[in-house]
Amino acid sequence: MESLYRKYRPQTFDQVVGQQHVVSTLENAVLEGRTSHAYLFCGPRGTGKTTMARILAKALMCEQGPGHLPDGTCEQCKLIAAGEHPDVYELDAASRTGVDNVREEIINRVNYAPVRGNYKFYIIDEVHMLTTAAFNALLKTLEEPPEHVVFVLCTTDPQKIPETILSRVQRFDFRAIGAPDIEAHLEDVCRQEGFEYDKAALELVVRHARGGMRDALSTLEKLSVFGDGKVSLESAQDLLGEVSGSMLVSVACAMAERNVPTLFSAVGDLVSQGRDLLEFNRELAGHLRDVYVIAAVGAKPGVVDANEEELQNLRDEALAFGSVDRISRAMVVLGDAAKEMRTATDQRLVLEVALTKIARPKSDLTLDSLADRVAQLERRVAELMVPGAMPTAAPATPAPPTAAPAAAHRAPRPTAPARPAQGEKNVATAPQPEAVVRPAPSPQPRASQQAPVQAAASKPAPAPRSAAPAPKPVTSRPTPAPAPQPAPAPAPRPVPKPASQPAPQPVAPAPSPASGSTAVTDGGELQRRWRQVVDALVRKDPPRGSLLLSSSAISDDGSKLLVNLPKGSAFAVKMLERADVRAVVEPAVEALFGHRQLIYAEASLRGADIARSQRAAAPTPAPAPTPTPAPRPAPA
Residues with Cβ < 8 Å from 156, sequence gap 6 or more? Predict the structure, then answer.
């Protein structure tokens, strides 16, 4: 039985499907008698290169004589069509690659006159397979052949042909045949053969042929045998391993949503159904191409072959991906996976790894994946900044104004002192002098450590009891403003109280010796609290909180908290010492540890270096205790 692609091979120029630019040029050359001595036909497989060479041979040897197009009825044309003409030589360069083959087959015979026709016609298929020596041997003959010799070189890879050959031939580039032309030809073949067919099945065959008529006819023949003369869509999908459009849409949406379990489940379904995973990869890449076009230029006419419903689905998928760059990266990853799957022993594993790279850019260390992660973070930050991120940061701002007097720091604190028997919670927002007097009898404002930012501000008030509940300003260095403390001094008039009242006020700038909080000596508890501090900072203020992501607490003595940062974190230490950063970090630390003086040290610092860093950090609170002895003797 003769194959369909041989049975329906074009015999004249009129029967050629597509390639109109080549047909018109050769027809004019034959009619005008201006044919060349050498041609190069290059293009994808199954697009008619060898068929066109045979038709050209018929045109030159037709018995109608020069200036006429062949009709395929004369004896010369029939012999050429049957491959039996003695003057038409079809050589396979893939099996005759050496210089000896070229010398024997061509050079030694080219000078002999034709046997039956007017020309000796050489058709060399896959000419790019010839060696360099064979090309050099053929070069002179190809440049100046005898008058009765015509060469036609056919190849699918013209890049491998030397420039010296290309400059001596007329080149014709054969293009992939259009889908409408292939489909119309398949319908005509089905009618002539008596096949029943579904139009959707033919469309599927055309899509898989990818512009090659020979592949389309071979697939049609297999379907006709598979369906006993009927070409149905179901049989085409089973034979070609076609995946339904809904499957492609669901997989694309899962990629956009970064749903890895759904992707793995889809691959498992394909394997259980016996589908070709490489073909699925190609179809998924083609589907993503449509999504990419819609995301880049919109639903312009002609760019995507889809109906209105399909276009709407493509728009939704493009919005789910979020950016054009992310879709292009997905196509690049699928393309790399397709190359690897051709030679891989486990195609499923290669495909699953590729889908994971697309859905989880953290698993890929390429620049494209890093760009994807940055874009994802930017979108999250933009979403947080729009509705509610600023209100949460607002309360932290009033706490750090360190230039204000100590009483100003106590004003936001009244919620804790309001717990004693006074019961006047609404007075918490009263003027500052009232807030100073009210907390005096209450040594237990420590119980309200939940207030993250303002909890530190009002701790100085319990001073009248003893030095234990020492004041805890948010920032210890800038509080050399005990000048405004005359306000509390006049309030307690009795003689014993002035002695104790001025004492806490000078001590306020240096809360380190009397912080009133218990040191955390258990290492596990210390690290747990510190991790809570860092997590709270990252949620509340990501730019500043990220400076402490790799940090760990080393020790806590009740007044000083030593924090260790990795080696090479000099920049982070410098940033953490800035006033605006300390204004955010210190309230968060105080919420869980109580008032602490933070000391930062790199991992490279050990022993004496850490001690020096502690001494370097200590001078700021140290100047405050010096005025302390002065006021105490005076009242005594």
Answer: 42, 43, 44, 45, 126, 128
